[in-house]
Amino acid sequence: MPQRHTREPFGSPNACNQFPALGILIGVMDSTVSAEFVAYASLPPGSRVDVETKNHLYLIECLGGSAIRISGHPEYCPTPIPGNLQGAADKRGLLEPGLIGRGRYLQFLLDDHRPVTTSRVLHLHVKRAASNPNIHI
User: Fold this and answer.
1) What is the pLDDT of residues 1-15, one digit of tens each?
2) What would the pLDDT profile of 10-67 be if each residue is shown by its tens digit?
3) What are phi and psi of 42, to 5 degrees?
4) Beta partners for 60?
5) Secondary structure class of 108 (helix, strand, coil)
6) Most buried among 2, 22, 35, 75, using CB within 10 Å?
7) What residues pair up with 34 in beta bridges, in sequence order?
């Protein structure tokens, strides 16, 4: 059973250090969890993050670092395509690199040059992969 933690605000320098992989849960392997925020670059390749926004459900496969395979938008990514996660922006557009957070706006790049900003993130579900899965890019 995970412990409840008080998290630092997104802008705090301790936010990522306090919860390095899953935001509110530490050390959970091969299970799906709900989270307030995710430090996605620390997730092992093969991990999956389901991001429900106001308008769409995005399915993100982590490939390592900020590299992803993403689907969920009927026009931009109806089937899984490669991309790069940029981070989470607040309603003023201030980007928090390395994070996906509830109440924020997910930002990612498709084809290394096409920026996409989603509607507000409502829910996050993380399935953390084992440390050394086989990933085919």
Assistant:
1) 444 333 444 433 444
2) 433 444 444 443 343 333 344 556 678 899 888 999 999 999 999 999 999 999 999 9
3) -90, -5
4) 49, 70
5) strand
6) 22
7) 125
Token digits for 112? 């290394």
Q: Tell me the CA distances in angstroms from 126 to 19, 38, 60, one per residue in order.
A: 14, 8, 10
pTM, two decimal places: 0.72
74 — phi, psi (to 5°)?
-60, -25
Give the DSSP H/E element, type plus range, for residue 16: helix 15-18
Q: Determine the Cα–Cα distance for residues 11 and 60; give it in Å rounded to an integer.
A: 24
Name the residue ranges covered by the structural domains of the chain: 36-127
> What are the structure tokens assigned to 90, written together?
């607040």
SS3 34: strand
